[in-house]
Amino acid sequence: MQPAIQVKSLTKKYGDHTVVDDVSFEIEQGETFALLGPNGAGKSTTVETLEGYRKPTSGDVRVLGTDPLRGGLSWRSRIGVVAQSLGSETMLTTRELLSHAARVFPTPRSVDEVLEIVGLSEHAGKLTRKLSGGQKRRVDLALGIMGRPEVLFLDEPTTGLDPEVRRQIWDLIDDLSDQGTTVLLTTHYLDEAEQLARRAGVIIGGKLVTVDAVDRIGGADARVPVVRWQEGGRVHEERTEHPTSLVARLAEERGELARLEVIRPTLETIYLGMLREHGSHDMLQEATS
Ligand SMILES: Nc1ncnc2c1ncn2[C@@H]1O[C@H](COP(=O)(O)OP(=O)(O)OP(=O)(O)O)[C@@H](O)[C@H]1O
């Protein structure tokens, strides 16, 4: 089966500034793939190139087998785009906006179906510019899925949303994925990547520093658990592949231990370690701020 997305040695320069540097990866049909990286790393530039909105300086990209710069209307109707900025602040009601959008697709979902999927049925008659931030983001998602896209690009779909709305949007993305939609997601939320994606790539300073299964990113060594406890007023830590055995031995030798914890590094801890290794101080500050 041909991959849904192929990126080969993609490089994008603005003047002397290389913002995407020899990036290569593939996304299988039906896969949800997360692109992670600090502000300014090159995520949106990569995604916008795949959407056909930016011209690569060099390299080759294909979406559904087509060069996005040459993709005509029929190709465009097979992809869905939810850009980073809100695109839904119009003078139309939600229903009017979706009805207009539906006309450009050959086999659109019905407006009522889309309203239901994104949970906006009860706001269908409201002017989009009067919706809350979370509701506007849902309108963006509604516009992105209106044409039943085979590939959906989601650029930071849940930034700034409250935890409940984020989870609802995750459920929506999971449902689309179950229906076979290929999803390319950029996000700053590591829990979002863990929840939704099978594989992820980390891009730092325009370079793709890793592509792997979400639960393998950073390598086995970065995932070794740490057993931590307090003894004699001091905190003790030991990294071990066998935390249960270590805890059993400590319990046998020393009895009850104060503040005993087994800590398994999260994707976030591993990601911050990667920024430290590859990135600048500024990137780390942005990622942790
Ligand atoms: N039209 C442009 N002209 C010049 N430089 C640009 C242009 N668009 C983007 N850049 C630069 O390219 C770099 C990558 O930007 P990009 O938006 O791809 O990053 P990002 O990883 O999506 O960041 P964020 O997480 O902040 O959205 C940045 O340094 C940005 O300033």
TrEMBL record:
Gene Ontology cellular component? plasma membrane
Q: Name one GO biological process term.
A: response to antibiotic
Topology with regard to the membrane?
Answer: Peripheral membrane protein
**Which superkingdom heads the taxonomic lineage of this protein's source?**
Bacteria
Give one GO term, molecular function aspect: ATP binding
Q: Does the keyword Transport apply?
A: yes
Where in or outside the cell it occurs: the entry states: Cell membrane
Under InterPro entries, the record lists:
AAA+_ATPase, ABC_transporter-like_ATP-bd, ABC_transporter-like_CS, ABC_transporter_ATP-binding, P-loop_NTPase
- Cross-referenced Pfam families: ABC_tran
Which positions fall inside the ABC transporter domain? 5-230
Sorted alphabetically, the keyword list is:
Antibiotic resistance, ATP-binding, Nucleotide-binding, Transport
Please report the name of this protein according to its UniProt entry.
Answer: ABC transporter related
